[in-house]
Amino acid sequence: MVKKTTTKHISFQNSSGQPSLSGDTLNVCDYITNSEQIKGQLDFAPFPNLRKITFNHNIRFNILESIDISKNDKLSRILISGNDQSLDFFENNIFTLLIKETQLNRVILSYNKYNPNGWTKATAYLRKQAIIPYFLVEDNKLESEVASLKESLAQKEQTIAKQDRIIVDLNKKVQKAPTLSQFQELNNIALGRINLDFKKLKQEIKRLKLKDFNPYFREQKSNFEKLTSAAKNKATDSLGGILDLFLQTSRQIIESENGDSNSFVQGQLQGQLTTCQTLLQTKFTQEELQDLLSKQKELIKLEDQSVILQ
């Protein structure tokens, strides 16, 4: 078992086999088997004490996507070993180093470089080298933060837009609501030029309203009673009970629309009304039944208004 906390050096070799630990060095082959290469992503975060990485100049990372060293804060050196052109290493491998910005000027890349005087060792900070491509993981974090800020901004804009709509609606209601001067004007019309007294004004308006309302209410109530009486005569004894249930159910539906009622009860009442209506259609037309319901609904509204005016 590899002791990850004791590993200070990871060395990649041109060979096949499983990783092996020698002292504080973890030797890793570029091929797991003779036909299976290392692929995907390597994350060195489990090696907190890693200080050095060595790549053999002829390793074959053709399908390895990336090596993440962004969490290896103790890493200071990356070495490409062997006397070969660094260009070959660049062309033969496609992986990218995932690093933090602080590592650009802290981690040194060392490799052998050929010049007219022979092979010499060259070094450069990651920022200044062009052999191993790198990608700053902070970029991902920044993109995530930007996306989060955009989402937060969009939510705030939606909230502001909602508040603006509420303000517009309130302004419309305020414009429709009578002002104090308008109340005073109404008070002067109903009671004469006396100080505004809402209670007296309310009583006077009710009195004036009842003067016209009561005769109309009595007339409509009488008309509906005559209509229901005629309907019962037409229904005869066989359907008289069904007609009563029909009107009773209709009243319950109308009254429940103005109060608290659950959808289940509403559904039951509507089903009962439909059943009664189907049975009554043996004696009544659809128009006659609908007229009966319309007149009943109008009378119920008048009854409610009568209660308010008392």
TrEMBL record:
Comp. bias intervals (Polar residues): 8-20
Residues of the region (Disordered) are 1-20
Q: Which residues form a coiled coil?
A: 139-211
| UniProtKB keywords | Coiled coil
In Swiss-Prot or TrEMBL terms, this protein is called Uncharacterized protein
